[in-house]
Amino acid sequence: MNATELNQTDYCLQFSCPERSAPNAVYVLLCVCASAVVLLTVFGNLLVIISVCHFKQLHTPTNMLILSLAVSDFLVGLFVMPFHFIWLIESCWLFGHIFCVLFNFVSFQLTSVSVGSVALIALDRYVALSHPFLYSQGITSTVIHTVIVLAWFFSLLYNFAMFYVGGNFTDLVMCPGECLYFLGETDSWIDLLFVVIVPCTLMVVLYVQIFVIARRHASAIRELNQNIQTISKVNPVSMKSERKAAKVLGILVIVFLVCLVPYYACSLMTSTTTIDSSHFIVNNVLILFYLNSSLNPVIYALFYSWFQNCTKMILSCKILQSDCTFVNVVGIKS
């Protein structure tokens, strides 16, 4: 038995679920807050899913990527958040070994899909702004749907390899009332490289380029306004819409990075701490990561007029009308 196995065994020996007592005010407050976050995540992302799927005007490549992100966020709110919050509030895993295995796999799968979706959104905005004619001709519905399916499929293959092919589920520690998964050092660095370093570097580089292009477009618009007689094929309104969409999605990426980086930073530091403390730290930092799934619909609601109008129509049940397949939105991308 190596040192890691010994530490894990010692942890299991010292761990026990706390005795349950009558709910106090703090316990009730935690349950109410957790329920509110789960409901916001599930119904907020469900509104995004219904909006993009129902209204034909929203069937654009960018919105299809937003739909993919919303689906992963919706699944996080439905299958991951409730059990994670119960685990933290009760200080005990109540759902058994088999569900513990499934919970860890689904959590890793949805995490990698979210990272991939946000990276693809950044790439989509870059291509749309830097090569608008190529984008309008080459990025069709078939292309974007194929990309999304491949992103989910390769994420599934990656996580299957990490968990099963390498035999890493032998490192799943199943103490009574606990559900801990330990990645080996090599696997941790591989996961860090492919899920954090590569996509996050891509996002940062692309958005630096996007804002450079956006400033260039702004200068071009000012020149057009100064010389209105100049004939140009460039549509200033369209360019402004593209720039606004890039800025909003830039906010989406920044919020995503703020929620993502602390979790992986804490995960890397667990090798220098005891299993007990590392488990406590990582599980609590995970709350911030999962909150990203709740914040995305809030960002859409604050900055996207199409989402605001769609939400009003959905909540008022106007989408039940047979002829309601279009939404009255000016500047659908903004």
UniProtKB/TrEMBL annotation:
Topology class, membrane: Multi-pass membrane protein
Location in or out of the cell: Cell membrane
Chief location: membrane
Keywords (A to Z) from UniProt: Cell membrane, Disulfide bond, G-protein coupled receptor, Glycoprotein, Membrane, Receptor, Transducer, Transmembrane, Transmembrane helix
InterPro entries: GPCR_Rhodpsn, GPCR_Rhodpsn_7TM, TAAR
One GO CC term, this protein: plasma membrane
Pfam families: 7tm_1 (PF00001)
Family (UniProt): Belongs to the G-protein coupled receptor 1 family.
Signal peptide interval: none
Ranges for domain G-protein coupled receptors family 1 profile: 44-300
Name of this chain's protein: Trace amine-associated receptor 13c-like
GO molecular function, one term: trace-amine receptor activity
Gene3D superfamilies per record: Rhodopsin 7-helix transmembrane proteins
Keyword Membrane found: yes
Bilayer-crossing regions: 25-53, 65-89, 95-123, 143-164, 192-214, 248-265, 285-307
